[in-house]
Amino acid sequence: MLAILKGSYTGNKKLVFDNPYSSTVKYFKDLAKINTLPSKGVYTLNSNADVIKYVAEHKDYIGVIGLNWYLQAGKKGDSDYPKVKLIGVKNVKGGKGDDAFYKPTQDNLISGIYPFLRNVYIINCEGKDGVGTGFANWLASPRGQLIILKSGLGPHKLISRDFNLKNSN
Length: 169
What we know:
Helix content is 35%, strand content 7%. It is built from seven helices and three strands. The longest helix is centred in the N-terminal third of the chain and has 10 residues, at 23-32. It is globular, with a radius of gyration of 19 Å.
């Protein structure tokens, strides 16, 4: 994938992103250490739904979108969703997850073995406790982490579920 982004790939696979100004494009440009996308082999569309549709119709294209967007398309019953497959990715030598190919599942995101992982940080610049602090606290709470889990992303903390089973004999 990095060879495609650097313009040195000679095969027939091509990459397609959601739009040229997305954070996903910026992340992969930073990862490949390039400033601009090559004129061949890398293309951008208008939305994540467009990427799913395009990849479903063109077999030599690899779509690059967030896992949560892919999962939302499946929940909405998008007709192109079953035609698109997730591919496994191997990390660079020496990195966590360099021993096998890993798909972007929640387990692999949480354990950190999927290599294309981005963390979200909450930076609070308020001088006192206010709305921002309250939101950050709520997001870190079990309820906020559950919403992140349900969206298909990997929460920072997995909430343990304790069951108290009683023998009623």
